[in-house]
Amino acid sequence: MVAGALAAAAFGCGAQDVEGPPAPPHPAQCRSLTELAPALNQVLQQDGGKLGTFINRNKLLDPKPDGSQAPLMVVVGLVLSNLSSMGQEPEAGAPGGQLCNLTDPPAARDANQMCELRRIIKKYVREGNGLDALHAIDPVVGGTLGYIIGAKPGSQSHYKVADALGASCQKASCKTEDLLDMLTGILSFIEPTKEQPKRHLELLAQLNDLLNDPRAQPMMQKIVTKMSQDDFVGIARVLIDNILNFPTDPAQFAAAYHRDLEIKINDLLTSFGIARNDPQWADLRVKLDAVLGPHEGANDLNKPHGNVHALLYDLLDPTRPDPVLKPMQGELACMKQVDPDFNLVRMTYDLAIVDDVLGIKNLMGAIQKLAEKDDRLSILSLAKNLIKMIRKDELGTRATREICVTALETQAPAPGEKSNAELLLSVAYDLETDGVMPELICVVDTLLFGCAGGTQPACSGLK
Questions:
Q1: What is the pLDDT of residue 16?
Q2: Which residue, 40, 166, 227, 239, shows the most beta carbons closer than 10 Å to its own?
Q3: According to the model, what pLDDT value does residue 360 have?
Q4: 30 Cβ contact list (under 8 Å, min separation 6)
Q5: Kind plus residue range of the DSSP H or E element containing 12
């Protein structure tokens, strides 16, 4: 519903531009929804009862008793109204009387967001690149959902993870604003700028260079042999406490970062036998230094660090325009309160280190290929601006919090019934693993651009 509304807004506003799609063909030329999306139809038949129970039980679409809108409708309305308002000013260089600069558009962060939304639809739907995006995130989304619901035969569920995430949306010690600000800061860090138009590609290349090093996997195996899940949690606890104590004063931040994060992690790697003076690990440690920093040992604290900083240092630097450190500290403090057993950290250990279910190396490689196809990274800029919209609107922030609490509720309303989290996450897992999402891209392409004549890259993988 939300995606359809956004698409309608994108093509319904500013129709004077030539970017609009051609008139759709006669409906008789198009296949039915069942033919276009058989996997979706099957999931709806199997899980429609779960989804209906979740929607009806929580009255997601109904006004509240006081007459105010349901939280989901608040967020949808906020997004659409802001997109409409952002589409008023023409882009720099746009021809007279038109909204978008089709020949030489400005950087995504400076562009008219309605024009950017159209470019995203063209890039990810019409040209089929959305399929590549889905393939990139499939292991992460499917692996995480499967871990929580216990999808593998014989595996146990981990709804404590959902419980912790849900609690983070409602506890007094937690602020949704911190999460939104942290996400904004991370996206801004990656986002290309006029001065650095290839910044995202440079960052991805740096990470992929590390992950594709032939010694990376042996290093992870060595760490696993030296460190149990409880050991990993203990180390994470110390590092999280150190980050919580980082000063946001730029004059004091550098020393705290080098002492309490960079040196501690580097010392730990050396204690595991992954030493920088060992020829087996020397090249890999140089690549790690570019991400973390090169200093280790107490004597290194007072050594000069120069003006070239490691990637993680730059991310946490409190002088950034959209700082990550302060809201991250708020989120970490929140998670310590709502997840004292560190279930999220345990999930990371199980999925990313022991079993590599998430396939981080393949994920980063796929993301880099996708970024090379969309060198503007428009979808990232749009996501950042939508998050900022919600953050600035008190009703939007409150609605986001309510949606989070409702979706991740792990307490069943009555004996013998399933909780909201059990209903919703199992449906989400089926949607992810049964190939529904690629079908939806094909459906959107067909609805917007028609299905008669020409090729449809968005439907290339579907029968």
A1: 41
A2: 166
A3: 67
A4: 446, 450, 451, 452
A5: helix 2-12
Percentage above 90 pLDDT, the chain: 30
Q: At what angle do helices 325-338 and 159-167 cross, to 10 degrees?
A: 120
pLDDT score of 431 more than 50 = yes
Token pair of 45 as six digits: 């038949």
Distances (CA, A) of 153 to 45, 150, 158, 421: 23, 8, 14, 20
Beta strands in 83-232 (DSSP E): none
Two structure tokens written together for 186: 């991370």
Q: Report the SS3 class of residue 200.
A: helix
User: Quick check: 258 pLDDT over 80?
Assistant: yes
3-state secondary structure of 33: helix
With a CB cutoff of 8 Å and minimum separation 6, the contacts of 295 are 258, 262, 263, 266, 301, 303, 305
pTM over 0.85: no
E-only strand ranges, 282-438 = none
What sign results for the dihedral spanned by CA atoms 293, 294, 298, 300? negative
Structure tokens at 65: 């008793």
Contacts of 231 (CB under 8 A, 6+ apart): none
Neighbour count for residue 422 (Cβ, 10 Å): 20
| CA 121/CA 395 separation, integer angstroms | 28
Q: Tokens for 158, please give them.
A: 């981990």
The structure tokens listed for 289 are 């230094």
SS3 of residue 411 by DSSP: coil
pLDDT of res. 249 = 93
HEC letters along 149-185: HCCCCCCCCCHHHHHHHHHCCCCCCCCHHHHHHHHHH
